[in-house]
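Lecture 7 notes: from sequence to structure.

We start with a single chain of 227 residues. Read the sequence below before looking at the structure.
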Amino acid sequence: MRLLLFFSLLTIISCTKPSEKVQSSTSSIPPKNLVALLDTIWKTEQTPIRLRDSLGKVHGYESVEFQKQNEIYHENHLINEAKILAILDGQGWPSISLIGEQGNLTICNVLQHSGIEVRKKYLPMMKQAVHEKNLSPRLLARAEDRLATDRGELQIYGGQIKYYPQTKSFDVWPIFDPENVDQRRAEIGLEPIAEFLGSRRNPLEWNLEEQIKRTAEFQQAKEVLKQ
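Now the structure, written as tokens:
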């Protein structure tokens, strides 16, 4: 009987999914430990990204050096994503008084790097966190822009930058109504888009006329695909 019970326990343990194991260990993390965990997640998520981008700038964004560091980043992200989702599923969006702006930035950055379905699932939780003043509206805006671009739609606030292989350069993903983008950005506390683009690690110049043209071309291309 004891032997049967032992093997039954082994079966239960072996069938537990990795995400379930992570969730069971993070659903009730003490405040001090949660802040420390988020700090570790931030470092392991952002360090390889910064190194990857630096290598891309020196060797090219299609170089072996860039690709190798990109693989390291993706491996780290899968681990970080499981931890973040376990926190959100286990205790909801943490209070800003507990994790601060940096904690919010860590959670949002990991979600930003996740797949579309994951981001769609947690967008309502982000909106509720904004409503309860536990999350900055600008982080929600960034998430909405990222989701729009990945769906092949125009972004609203202009925060998403894409690498275009055909020109081997970065540019803003086409924006809805670019003439009024600064007004929308100001409404949620964002700086003008020209200032935002100029302050990036890889600065870009904002050219309104060029962006109006790109938006029109984007919309025309979508209309052609519908036909």
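The first strand starts at residue 161 and ends at 164. Keep this in mind for problem set 3.
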